[in-house]
Every structure is written in C-alpha cells, then in structure tokens.
Amino acid sequence: MIWVFVVPIALVLGYSLPDLTNLEVDGFMVFGLAVLMMMTPLLLKYHHPWLLLSWNMSAVIFFVPGRPYLWMAMTGISLVIGVLQRTLNPEKHFISAPSLTQPLIALALIVLIVAKLTGGLGMASIGSDVVGGKRYVWIWGAILGFFAISSREIPRDKAMLYVGLFFLGGVTMAIGNLFGVLSKGFTWLFLIFPAENVIDTESGDGMIIRSWALPFMSIAIYCAMMAKYGLRGCFDLRRPWRIVVLGSFLFIGMMGGFRTMVVILALTTGIMFYLEGLVRSRFFPAVILSLVLGGTMAAVFANHLPLSVQRSLAVLPLDIDPVVKLDAQASSEWRVQMWRNLLPEIPDHLILGKGYGVTATDINVMYQTIRTASRTAGAETVGDYHNGPLSVILPLGVPGALIFLWFAFASVRAMYLNYKNGAPEIALINRFLFAYYLARMIFFFAVFGSLYSDLAMFTGVLGLSVSLNGGIAKRARETAPEPVASTFKFNPGERRIVNA
What we know:
The protein is mainly α. It contains 19 helices and 6 strands. Strands 1-4 form a two-stranded antiparallel sheet. A two-stranded antiparallel sheet has the order 2-3. The relative contact order is 0.11. Mean pLDDT is 81; it is low at 485-500.
C-alpha cells in the first residue's frame, strides 16, 4: 500500500518541481495536495487537536484562491474524517447537543437564503463582479467548525493540553508584526502568516502605533493561564512568576493601541472574580485597595507611558496625551456617526437583509466618497458596522436577528450548564470558558462586534466546551436512600444499628 501511494506522488512532484522553484501557484497547489496525501495517516490520528491548534492561528493557505485560513481547511478535513469514521465504525458517534445544533443550522440556512436573494456568492478571487462572498464562507466555516470541534469528546487527562492548543494558536498573530524586522531569508514566512497592517498616527511626542497582533497575542496568553490556574492561581503570591508573566503580556498587548483588549479582559476578569467567590472572601478588601492604588498610580503616570499604551487606556478617565485622547475620541465619533446614518436603513431590511454582496460600482462610489468625505461611507458600503446588533440585523434582517438571539441564549445556557454541572476535574476550565464566553457575548452586544468575524470565536469556544464535557452537562440525579427496616419501627433512610 505504501508503494501504491508513494510512486504516483513522487511522479507528480517530480513533474511539478520546475513550477515549484519558480513559485508558480499551480505548482504549489499540486505540492500541497501531495503533502496532504502523505499526511493522511497523521491526519486520521491527530486531526482533532490540529483543528483546535489552527482555530486561532493567523495562518492562511496562500496558494488557494481567496487565501482561506488554515482553520477552514482543517474544519473540512476533520469533518470528512469524522463522517468516514462514523460510517466505518457505528460505535463512533458525534456528540449530541440539539439545543445548539438547531439554531446553528437555522442560521446557516438564513444566510444561504439571503445570499441567494441578494446577488449570490460573489468573490473577486474567482473573477466575480460582486464581492463580499468571503464573509458568507466565514459564517458557514464557523458553523461547520462547531460540528468539527464537537465531533468527539476530549479525554479528561488531555483537557488542559487541548485547551492550551486552542488558545495559544493565537500567539502566531504576532508573526505578522515581524515584517521588516526579519532578514530576507524569512520572507516566505509571511506567505503563511500575512504581515499585519500597522496603523500610524502622528503625535507631538512621536507616533501612535496600532496593531491587532499584539492584543491577540496577549489575549491568547491570558486565556491559557486563566484556564489552567484560574484567577486565584494567577495571582498566587507563592508563585510570583505567574503575576510577572501575565502582567508582562498584558502590557505588551496594550502596546497594540486598541481599547478593545482592555475592555474584554476587564469584563472576563470581573466575571471570574465573581464566579470564584472572591467577592465574599477575605481577599476582597485587599483587591479593592490594590485597585485604588493602581488607579492612583495610573492617573499619575499615565501620560508618561508609551503613546500606544495610553491609547489602550483611553477608555478610562486618565490624564493622557491630548493627541492620543483626540485620536480615540475621533475613532468613537465616526462610529457613532455611522450608526446614526445606518439607523434609517433598518426598516428597509427588516424582512430581507441586504447581505454582504458589494458590486464594483458600489466600490468605485465608495472610493470617491472616501476621497471627498469621511471614512464612514466606506465602512457602511462594505458592511463593517463596528456594532454587533447592526452587523446582524442589516445583513440578515429580522429573521436572522431572531435566529442569532436564539443561538446566543442557547449557547450561554449551555456554557453555564457545563460550568455548573461539569466534571470536577475540569471545573476550573469550565469556569473560565463560561466567564470568557459571557464577556465576549456582552462585548458583542454592548460595545463592538461583527457577525461574520466574531462567529468563529463563539462557535470555537462553544465547540471546545461541548467537546470537553461530552455534550451539555446535566445535573446528577440524587438517589434516594433505600428504606431499612428497624426492629421497632420502619423509618425510610434510617440505618439499622446492630450491637456487636
């Protein structure tokens, strides 16, 4: 069997080798398929942990049109392998969670209907005049990813390993920031991990450098440490290295210049603080005192911090650089202005959403508008509303919004039940996953969100929880004690005392 596969693969690779040396796309596709065939035995055994590792990675398959993310390809591979294994072995079953699968299937169907009625799946990467179809693919990929991740139960003794793989894959986001730093010999690395777009804003004291990569890396480290140690464990004074590592990466994350990270981690930490019972513990006064002292120091030294860190802290009432404050206010104001412009459009898309398709004419008008007016018109045209509820109701209408609310309620309930009723050996993981998921859901509805880009985060964490718990955990039934007959009287549950 080895020769049956190896000889044809060797012939194909030998024929396509000249194209590979010239970096031809067709040659890379042949090479990729050949490598995929040779990796089949490893994929059959390790496709599930590899899927979890790739879920938060920034890696793309650069030789495929549209440059899909690696997690999308792993989702398809994992689902195919899961279905084949289920077909060959009836004892292998997908984990059943109908309260979650039903709204996800309904969401996939409503997205398909909207796409069909609003211009189809247009993609510029395949030569279509209508663009925006990639966002439909992201939504369907996120939904299929839930089924792939939750297709099998994670062994309890490997729970933390799989959770670490899931979150720490986000560290690869920082590779894109190394563009221009590494030597030319590593240029190929940025084909797999695209260079991150860095936003520069001039200030009187320097440049405000903003990059999404650093906050993503920081959140990945934070999540991995919280899942393993919990809030108490991370701030255990007997192990100060944990505080140092966590604080260092949080500071590095604030160097990205985005307020989003500060709000998400503050929400998650606050929920964790409550769930771990620290509000009623003797540590609560010490925490309040630490917050007061920390807030005082931040108020005094905030304007001496790097400009990017100051912008991350602009969400707090601190004395920061005036240019940084003005930049943060302008960012908030143009979003509010865009929402005001979009509100009158909602009644026109209550029944049928506008979808994600954008014609070439719309794009040309957008570029002309950006040159003559503000950037809000460009964001409105391409569907980047920077608002969770608007990102649902405008593209998908009221039917899509109701289905998403159904999914949001069912998913939060499932995460809560796994937190309350999950196995004791993974209680710490379940507590963090529930806190993080609830914080991200609150952030989506109240602060900032985008359906097509955030859905993968929701379904990924949700699928991980279902896979860890073997479904949605149920409360263990309490068995009533068996009645025991006494010598003098019959009392249910009373033990019989016999003198030796």
